[in-house]
Write a structure and sequence with these properties.
heterodimer; A: 258 residues; mainly alpha; Outer Surface Protein A, domain 3; 3-stranded antiparallel sheet; two-stranded antiparallel sheet; 6 strands; 52% helix; B: 90 residues
Chain lengths: 258, 90
Amino acid sequence: MTAWFEDVLEFGNAIRNNDAMSGGIGPNYPIGTALEIYRNNYRGNLQGALGLAYPVIRQLVGDEFFRMMAIMHIESRPSKSGNLHDYGAELSKFLASFPNAQELPYLPEIAKLEWACHMAYFAADIEPIDIVLLASIAPENQDRLRFLLNPACRIVRSSFPIVDIWQAHQPGMPEDFLIDLDSGPQIALVNRRNDVVRVEALSLPESAWLEEIESGATLWDATAVVLENHPDFDLESHLVNWIEQEILVDFDHEAKEN
Amino acid sequence: MDRRHVLTAAFGSLLAMSLMSGNANAADKMNMEKCWGIAKAGHNDCSSNKSAHSCAGQATKNNDPMDFVAVPKGTCNKIAHGSLEPGKAG
């Protein structure tokens, strides 16, 4: 049992780090060849998974750089899941300390946004809100409503214009863009609707309201907090918009029953 | 700001939305059907996905040469102040 475990550990290290192996694997191949075949497939799979999860990063740095980065990432961060779509959650952290990417300080934040998009793509399907039921809630219960955000919905804050960068790299966008990295911070809202992942920029009060709601605040508490700092916040139009966009997808049952 | 005033306005709009929701639902369904099939390319489809699933010509040769100097060469040159040069000189 222990010997077997050590063999597996040695095998794993040999696959990721080009280490040699002491024992044999099977009768058909010399051990070096067998390892190389396995290693190339292992890396190819994970490289492919990273490429699919991070298409904007790949475009930003180019295919060759991306491939080298992926190899280094694979060496230091083994896959821990049987599901390839789970691989790459830590690319943002990896990039933050990756020596060859230090000149592109926005890369880790783009990676964070892309992983949010990746997660949004695989989030559970959900029915839109029951607008008839919502509209029929008695006035005395309205302020105590608690809304539920779409499980695909994520907010990503950045000190860089990450939404502009992300959008410039979507299929069909013109190739001759120029983005000023000093154009200021952006807050990205990620959501999925009709199987399409969307990213848009949020204003400060919008992100504040959604984060209040996400943390479980009631409709009025969330709104009051935002109105305090942003008296122009227009609850009416945002509520309608976020229900239409399927950002708000349900409200609490206590209020439904009252 | 007055709580009642804000909530009444908001729920007024929600009521208007709910009155139109019969049509909206039908439109949404059509929309959904139209959009069917534009799932993120390659993600769901093993057969069209050459790189993320095994067996595609990675068999014998080591395809991971590491002997080049890695410098980002993508669209990052279109992001001003994200220049590739600074730091190299000093």
